[in-house]
Amino acid sequence: MHKRVLFLAFEDPYRKELQAMFKVKDVPTIVVLRPDGSVLSPNAVEDICRFGCGCFGDWQESAGLIERSFMLNEEFDNLNLRSATEPVRRLKYKTEDDKRNKKWWKL
Question: Is the whole-model pTM more than 0.70?
Answer without folding.
Answer: no
